[in-house]
């Protein structure tokens, strides 16, 4: 083997090494990019979960009930009582007071049964009479 052959093999080995290094570097770069992408997604998810936990914690601290809630108007319609009459009875403390969520009053599902009983008591266990109707019995 002469010097030319030795140099040729050395050059070929270096070229192969540099090609291999380039491929390895590309794969390493791709892996780093993928890892960074997943880390970014994980950070986003962690942020969203922490934000949700803060909201839930805030709700728990203030004792807000997470069950289904109804507006005062919806409850009045459910009970078959005119909205204005229902409001005046609330202000007169004839009905249980609505819960405040922010600045809006709401009733929860568990309150509806109590409100139905209070409505029966206020009506004297009789149906509301419309003007012009006579009572039966």
TrEMBL record:
The protein's name: Helix-turn-helix domain-containing protein
Species whose genome carries this gene = Psittacicella hinzii
